[in-house]
Amino acid sequence: MIPSLLIANRGEIACRIIRTARAMGIRTIAVFSTADANALHVREADEAVAIGPAAARDSYLLPANILAAARESGAAAIHPGYGFLSENADFAQAVIDAGLIWVGPNPDSIRAMGLKDAAKARMIAAGVPVTPGYLGEDQSPDRLAAEAARIGYPVLIKAVAGGGGKGMRQVDDAGAFADALASCRREAAASFGDDRVLIEKYILAPRHIEVQVFGDRHGQVVHLFERDCSLQRRHQKVIEEAPAPGMDGETRASVCAAAVTAARAVDYVGAGTIEFIADASQGLRADRIWFMEMNTRLQVEHPVTEAITGQDLVEWQLRVAAGEPLPCTQDELAIHGHAIEARLYAEDPAKGFLPSIGTLEAFDLGDPAESGVRVDTGVEQGSVISPFYDPMIAKLIAHGATREEARERLADALDEAIVWPVRCNAGFLVEALDHPDFVAGRVDTGLIAREGEALMPPALPSEEALIAAATALTGPAFVPGLRLNAAPRRAGMFLLDGQPIAIDFAEADEADEAITTSVLMSEGGQTWALAPFRAAGKAAGGASDGAILAPMPGRVIAVDVAAGDAVVRGQKLLTLEAMKMEHSLTAPFDGTLAELNAAVGAQVTEGTLLAKIAEA
């Protein structure tokens, strides 16, 4: 067995790998950037090595720094986790050339499946059905636009070297193609160092079905059944489950066999995922499911597969890397019950899901022993959510005898989540899990986009929750009645997350004397702070003067207007890159660009005045 393991990653996946390695008696070594010096994964490892500045490109994405840390710590093996260098074939080869054990597939397999166009060509040769599209070498905008027209709109532009929803755009008509292509290429270049794209037919009723595969160095390849990752927002997975709702035995056998064929076609070793797109307009059918791509690594959603099979996939990875055969044969694997995973992100649904950063002054996801819900996280109360990395802060995984049991268990756990003052999507996840279509298993990748506002959690806590919080502040002399921004009427004035709110009291004067501090309230996955108005100071008002402020720290990557230009409501003004994603800032009304303070390449902080529009 491997004696010592360096984890070339951070956050929850590093903590997840450390947990299994420790149980196997393997010494663990963490790596960390300056931003992660006090991170949970650093403290949980047996040893930790600094590898550079906060930006991932200067630390976690530098193979030389990782290898130097391995030499310094005497590591025998390197596990890349997912993201960062996990699918970098050159890094894998460098690890092997350094005489270390690479916990992952052979570099040749990574190369074979790493470029989507080449991977599809290989799958066609192997007899695996693929989605109609364009995989050609001619990357000129005119040729790509012509191919999109040939395939027929809507189409999907995808980065050849992409993954995780980066460098991917849906285009519904020819008029939107050029802008979408330019944005896709910028994001692909920033994320992967490769701006090449391919074009695929966009399936109108798509289900995202993926199959977990595993191979060893003794010629064995098995599958561990399928997962459904159809609930997505902007091509980013939000909720995943296993097995896929509505998957019958015959279709499962067909798609899983195709996945094994795909893995064998590249002599695959280790954990991998074969991703398929299904046209679910007539239910899941074997003749309407096509290969999309292969992820040559462990997936974020691997816990749902672990839950239904009873297997530890990280243990499988470590044993295979050590040269052992797979722990199970295909006949020994079976599905037990149902599992659902939700990704808890540091983002604000009320502000277009913009990432949220700051210190987790309050963070409580419950006791897994009581809730029966597994929590994989790399943070704890007091941790800092920084702008440098992916905003996912935890995964919650529920398993039950039935899908409904797992769904209810997960929704209950998220309903009681406390995250503050960093915003999170727990309330949104509760609404998604409780949506009638999700409850019935009628999921597809367009569900969230279609439902929109129906999935937004309430902007305010219930009257009952507010009363309970106000009572905790002021004592029991209290009667119902709350009015946001209302004039006081025998009322105590409070601030609810910084906004004034008046709450009626039976004995206002006496209750007012009891106010001493602030309290947190949690409901439906959302957390609010209630504070006395006089203690918290004045609330910040929203500006309506046309000021365009940076919603978060980031880098300006495109400016589409010039000072003095006439603009219309909704027109894109500039693009900000933050937390590995692009965010377009648009005009709030018709007018003239009176001020422009943004330049391409500029780093800006949250609240920076980037532009100002004067009304026409």
Fold and architecture overview:
This protein has 616 residues and is α+β, with helices and mostly antiparallel strands. The chain has five domains: 4-103, Rossmann fold (3-Layer(aba) Sandwich), CATH 3.40.50.20; 132-201, Dna Ligase, domain 1; 206-455, D-amino Acid Aminotransferase, Chain A, domain 1; 463-536, no CATH class; 547-615, RNA polymerase II/Efflux pump adaptor protein, barrel-sandwich hybrid domain (OB fold (Dihydrolipoamide Acetyltransferase, E2P), Beta Barrel), CATH 2.40.50. The protein is 28% helix and 31% strand. It contains 19 helices and 36 strands. It has an eight-stranded antiparallel sheet. Strands 3-2-1-4-5 form a five-stranded parallel sheet. Strands 24-26-25-28-27 form a five-stranded antiparallel sheet. Helix 4 runs antiparallel to helix 5 (107-114) and helix 13 (403-415) runs antiparallel to helix 14.
